[in-house]
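Hi there,

I know you've been waiting on this one. I reran it after we fixed the sequence typo, so this is the corrected version. Both the input and the resulting structure follow.
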Amino acid sequence: MPDSFGEQGQTAVGGKIADNDVRIAYVDPITHTLMTIDYVHHEIHEGDHFLYTDAVTLGEAGVQNYHITTPNTTKWAHMIFVVDGSAITQVELYEGTDKAGDTDVVAGNSNRNSTTAATLVIKKGLTGGTSDGTRLHIYKGGSATNQSRGASGTRNDEELILKQNTKYILRITSGTASNLCNVRMSWYEHTSKS
């Protein structure tokens, strides 16, 4: 077995990290697999990944709206959201609303050592306007009885690249009293090259 690169067809894999700095990629010594991280994980390291979570208890026909505004730049938000309810729950996502958000919330940077703030703005509640916009997503589920076994939950498994300079509504509607609902929005902000 050769003990250096370049013998018997071996190839070194590397990457340029600066103008004059190329590094060889690492291989796990046990499994001999290339050690990598996915792009979202990279964005966390870079300080460009953000997270907002909330938990609300809604009564029957209770509604919680989250107003999301993207900036008018090509630094686009690549978002995944997860919503669950302990009982009958409906979740909708609308794009292009003319409504405004009500109460500011704070999104945290997933890299707690970074001081970079999100450019996407989230507010709780709605004010003004006449249109929710175009519905992009709807999910209904859950049970009024046996709630621990009939909970409702939705997740967009693939990220949504939100349109720049656009307002969105993420709406949770309860069909049952005392419905504990959780929401998690996570996204990274990446400047488009196209």
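Quick highlight: The CA atoms of residues 75 and 123 lie 20 Å apart.

Best,
R. S.
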